[in-house]
Specification:
Layout: E1 7-10, H1 26-39, E2 43-47, H2 53-65, E3 70-76, H3 79-88, E4 95-102, H4 105-112, H5 116-131, E5 137-142, H6 149-162, E6 166-171, H7 178-191, E7 199-204, H8 211-220, E8 225-228, H9 242-251, H10 267-278, H11 299-307, H12 335-344, H13 352-368, H14 374-384, E9 393-401, E10 409-416, E11 419-426, H15 430-442, E12 447-455, E13 464-472, E14 475-483, H16 486-501
Parallel strand pairs: 1-2, 1-8, 2-3, 3-4, 4-5, 5-6, 6-7, 7-8
Antiparallel strand pairs: 9-10, 10-11, 12-13, 13-14
Helix pairs in contact: 1-2, 1-10, 2-3, 5-6, 7-8, 13-14, 15-16
The structure holds 3-methyl-2-oxobutanoic acid and zinc ion (ZN).
Length: 513
Amino acid sequence: MTKPSLIIFDTTLRDGEQSPGASMTLEEKVRIAKVLELLRVDVIEAGFPIASSGDFDAVKAVADTIKDATVCGLSRALDKDIEAAGAALKNAVSPRIHTFIATSPIHMREKLNMSPDQVVEYAVKAIKKARQYTDDVEFSAEDAGRSQPDFLKRIVEAAIKAGASTINIPDTVGYTVPHEFGMIIKNLIESVPNSDKAIFSVHCHNDLGLAVGNSLSAFLNGARQIECTVNGLGERAGNASLEEIVMAVRTRQDIFPCDSRIDSSQIVPASRLVSRITGFPVQPNKAIVGKNAFAHESGIHQDGVLKNRETYEIMRAQDVGWSDNQIVLGKLSGRNAFSTRLSELGHEFTSVHELNQAFQKFKNLADRKHAIFDEDILLIALQGQAVVNEETYELVFSNVCSETGETPNAQVTLRINDEEHSGTAIGGGPVDAVFKAIESIIQSKTDLKLYSVSNITSGTDSQGEVTVQLEKNNTNIYGYGAHTDIVIASARAYIDALNKLAIPAKAHPQHGV
Ligand code: KIV
Ligand code: ZN
């Protein structure tokens, strides 16, 4: 019997970006899209083109770049949204327009102020309009998880008749539980007369921690596309996590027999890239991509794993892209060894200049750190691709003094638009002092909501990675920095967040019609 194909629809760049503070620049989105292409996802939802000119340009840039995946743009059921999506996707090898409207009683009444008849009318009109740009049109019934079954059936039938080839059933607020959500899918497939003319898809949010379970239950009941994000990023508690979906179906083929194109060895690199770009840390015990996912702390477990890996491991760390954490390079390694190892890890430099800069950073690091791991060089490569905007604040110099019995003090110099500015401050600790010194120059008036530091590899000379979350006018932004000196890593993370503050706000697709 041939196995069905499972379509992996990645929405890290759209729903993932809707996480408060996870804004990405155009260049960052293209970089992530390229990694998603290496990961071999089937569909990349690149954004919501009507949201802002920046979003339009980013969807267009992804559509212009990606050759081996369908590129999708989101639109409400409005002409202007669909026109923007159609224009942004013009050059895509395989374009998809994804249009949606809410179908639950509470959304239709409170948000849309529309009758069910009007909602069906808008959906049908939007799908027909989208078909003028592409044959590949997806329709989503927003808040389907709380929609009335008969109405859902009616709108799905109308959507397929109007030309939608993918019908997405979102559990927008993460309310359903697996057996219930599976039944919603089964009932639709069995009762909608033209259901065989479309692929059924699901899009589950994680408010009750059930997004992956609900998606897998939907698969067992006939859904053939799952929408998900790297690291489970997304609105509120996030979306179903791509790595968990992919590895659940791979590991339990006895339960979920299906084929997917995914190259699982790209999972960890994709997770790291998304975490570094958005500044959202990955919790250590996160399945598949958390630092501890394959670590065996207790003696009993270690003993079992050493005798036979399968006593406690159901997957191989290497299969999802974890390196075996060996020392890979050292102070005497040359440029060739450096770029060859990065190439083995899936990273290619786009110019000799980029390689030279990264190699210089590697040499500086090797002066401070005895053993260099894959994690260290990947970080250097990614940092080289950070986007420097004109407005960027850049750390030129910092000097922090922390002495027993004395109040810590910091001196900082930043480059802002080619001019150097200096500031000093005292603080409760060295990190507090350095943040206050930066603040004395920039005067951003942001509140520090989160500060976290962890080591990238083992050893006291490991690079520390720091994440900060700043808040200003109810907007959250994340910043990331890494260095063997955690005060410098902290200063970098703080400055990274301040740089992102300059990114303009954009419209939210699900607030409004
Ligand atoms: O959660 C949701 O319902 C969505 C739709 C726009 C698909 O993100
Ligand atoms: Zn969503």
